[in-house]
């Protein structure tokens, strides 16, 4: 835990350092440069991305855009512990002059990126520095994990690309040719930055979406893949990213101590950045006291660091899609849905089909994911009773919030 005396000292030092840095960076704010669309048509005069082309389900035109910041922040564990973190924040709607002032804005999980096959994605990343670690000068990147046909310059891998330095912006470009469940993370000093929370959901919806296909007596307009016959049709979708953190690693990071990479042992397991019962809270979690105090000292309001919940709801008879992914750097996880039928239709952003087109979908009681893996699972609720079910890890040691039982990597599936 962070002691009150240590917390006050850190907040005082970080506030002073951040204010000095911001005062010196007035002219440097011009380094925030957003790019969006051909001839930059998607950027408004104030540097924000126009609403019509921000990523999401209602994007108009042939391209989509997003502006993320990379920095640090604080997050809350389900047992009340606060952890120092790194992360991304969505600033697509903000003026570019305001973006560099976005301190402690890091989210965990990172903002969900929802895309459409056939479009172009312009993704701007701005590095806003580390408010609580002014001694660090870490670059950051976006690695679109699993993306095929990626030119190295846009891959975010330090070996073949480059990192975005503090106070600077870089725009990544992607041609979205292939639907499926992907994920994204920072690949600069990857083990450290991923353990600290720079992980997020990302998926691409197929061009077949919006057409009408009947399969098994049901008509669908939303699909996992371009299946041709509606076999991957669904009614509701939920991206669920599995992950866990070692609280000792995070506390040593904030304490400016050597980081225990070889001793890393995760103590908090989560889905979409929350442990149970916070996973089923439909509201954004309140910002931790450390973040709130820091921003109030600057005359700002603190926003939630953990806005994404994992509560799954459906009406009896609906088909539910679970977009499962794991970006953990220490563990494999096995996930089961208590008493519910699970059908796997895709793995690694690829539909399960043989070379002649034979469907290779399979029914299962659980799925296991290692770091960097994703899978798509369909749950048909037509033959199950109304009620509340649990989706949880069978790695029973992770059904806790550190020393508090009945928590961790678990959420609820409510069938009405």
Description:
The protein has 416 residues and is mainly beta. The chain has a single domain (4-415), classed as Immunoglobulin-like. The protein is 11% helix and 33% strand. The chain has 5 helices and 24 strands. The chain has helices at 4-24, 96-99, 190-195, 247-254, 289-296, and strands spanning 63-76, 82-90, 110-116, 120-127, 143-145, 169-175, 180-185, 199-205, 213-215, 218-220, 236-245, 268-271, 312-314, 319-326, 333-337, 342-347, 350-351, 362-364, 366-369, 373-380, 387-393, 400-401, 404-405, 410-415. A hairpin with a 5-residue loop joins strand 1 and strand 2. The radius of gyration is 21 Å and the shape is globular. The two termini are 40 Å apart. Mean pLDDT is 91; it is low at 3-30.
CATH architecture: Sandwich
Quaternary structure classification: single chain
CATH homologous superfamily descriptor: Cupredoxins -  blue copper proteins
User: pLDDT below 50 for ≥5 consecutive residues: which ranges?
Assistant: 3-30
Measured as a percent range, the helix fraction is 10-25%
The secondary-structure element order is HEEHEEEEEHEEEEHEHEEEEEEEEEEEE
Helix/strand structural class: mainly beta
Globular, elongated, flat, extended or rod-shaped: what is the shape? Answer: globular
* Mean pLDDT across all amino acids: 91
The CATH topology comes to Immunoglobulin-like
Put the structure in a nutshell.
The protein is mainly beta and 416 residues long. The protein has a single domain (4-415), classed as Sandwich (Immunoglobulin-like), CATH 2.60.40.420.
């Amino acid at each position: 835990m962070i002691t009150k005396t240590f917390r006050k000292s850190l907040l005082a030092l970080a506030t002073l350092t951040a204010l000095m840095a911001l005062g010196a960076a007035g002219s440097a704010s011009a380094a925030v440069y957003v790019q969006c669309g051909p001839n930059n048509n998607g950027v408004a005069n104030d540097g924000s991305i126009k609403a019509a082309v921000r990523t999401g389900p209602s994007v108009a035109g042939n391209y989509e855009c997003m502006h993320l910041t990379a920095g640090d922040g604080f997050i809350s564990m389900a047992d009340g512990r606060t952890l120092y973190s790194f992360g991304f924040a969505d600033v697509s709607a903000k003026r570019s002059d305001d973006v560099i002032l976005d301190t402690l804005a890091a989210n965990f999980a990172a903002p969900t990126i929802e895309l459409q096959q056939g479009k172009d994605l312009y993704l701007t990343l701005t590095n806003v520095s580390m408010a609580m670690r002014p001694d660090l000068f870490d670059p950051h990147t976006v690695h679109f994990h699993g993306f095929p046909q990626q030119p190295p310059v846009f891959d975010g891998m330090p070996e073949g690309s480059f990192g975005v330095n503090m106070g600077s912006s870089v725009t990544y470009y992607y041609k979205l040719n292939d639907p499926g469940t992907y994920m994204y993370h920072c690949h600069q000093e990857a083990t450290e930055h991923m353990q600290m929370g720079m992980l997020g959901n990302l998926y691409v919806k197929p061009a077949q979406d919006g057409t009408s296909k009947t399969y098994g007596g049901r008509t669908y307009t939303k699909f996992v893949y371009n299946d041709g016959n509606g076999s991957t049709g669904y009614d509701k979708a939920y991206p669920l990213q599995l992950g866990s953190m070692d609280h000792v690693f995070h506390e040593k990071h904030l304490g400016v101590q050597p980081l225990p990479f070889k001793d890393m042992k995760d103590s908090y397991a989560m889905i979409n950045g929350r442990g149970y019962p916070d996973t089923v809270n439909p509201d954004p979690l309140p910002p931790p006291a450390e973040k709130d105090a820091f921003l109030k000292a600057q005359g700002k309001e603190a926003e939630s660091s953990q806005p994404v919940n994992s509560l799954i709801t459906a009406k009896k008879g609906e088909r539910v899609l679970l977009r499962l992914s794991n970006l953990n750097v220490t563990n494999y996880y096995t996930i089961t849905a208590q008493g519910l039928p699970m059908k796997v239709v895709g793995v690694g952003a690829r539909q399960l089909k043989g070379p002649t087109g034979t469907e290779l979908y399979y029914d299962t009681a659980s799925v296991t994911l290692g770091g960097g893996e994703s899978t798509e699972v369909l749950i048909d609720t037509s033959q199950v009773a109304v009620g509340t079910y649990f989706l949880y890890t069978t790695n029973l040691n992770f059904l806790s919030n550190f020393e508090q039982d009945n928590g961790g990597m678990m959420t609820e599936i409510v069938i009405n």
